[in-house]
Amino acid sequence: MTGTYINMATVLAGTTVGVCLGTRLPERIRTTVLHGLGLLTILIGLQMALETKNILIVLGAILLGGVLGEAMRITEGLERLGSTLQALLSRGRSRTFGEAFVTSSLVFCIGPMAILGSIEDGLTGDYRLLSIKALLDGFASIAFSAALGWGVALSAVTLLAYQGGITLFANVLSRILTEPMIVEMTATGGLLILGIGLKLLELKDIRLAGFLPALVIAPLIVWAIPWVKGLF
């Protein structure tokens, strides 16, 4: 769990710095920073998505995950959580508290570094990979919070639940998540990252939270393919 705690600390520190700095920055600069992050996010998403070895797996995961996510009303649940916290903590910023929470949580948690780093931390106690990720997330949280506000800090809780959960169950997950599973999960996450980039550039407001189940469905499809082939 050491690596996750370090990651949480850098996000909280980066958020504080970003909010304090953001109040002194002109709106045009904050907007430019946010758009720059959007461009970089699209590049990262493309790199991740192109790692897929079978585009049909990603397609199936996205479609099934989207249907399941909408049936579970994940987006509405996160929006209600964000609205409640906004009423308690928001300082009247132009961006919603919930948007900051959802966007930063997706950016910080989706990707191979979170998965592989947490597994390595849980199995061997080696948290170097998560330490590198923590530095990246810390710098990103400065830029995000300067534009979106305090909601970015709440993503530290998401990090604890997501990375901490993987670390605690690393022995089990290491037997389940094979390399092909991680590849397709990463590619599926890459598509969601692309959606985040489009949202940051204010081109399209996609209900990204509704697609989160796709990250679970992708490795399940990889697991099911050999079993299905064996039936024929």
Automatic annotation (TrEMBL):
The chain crosses the membrane at residues 6-25, 32-49, 55-75, 96-119, 139-162, 182-200, 206-228. It comes from the Bacteria. Keywords: Membrane, Transmembrane, Transmembrane helix. Pfam families: DUF554 (PF04474). InterPro entries: DUF554 (IPR007563). PANTHER family: INNER MEMBRANE PROTEIN, INNER MEMBRANE PROTEIN-RELATED. This is DUF554 domain-containing protein.
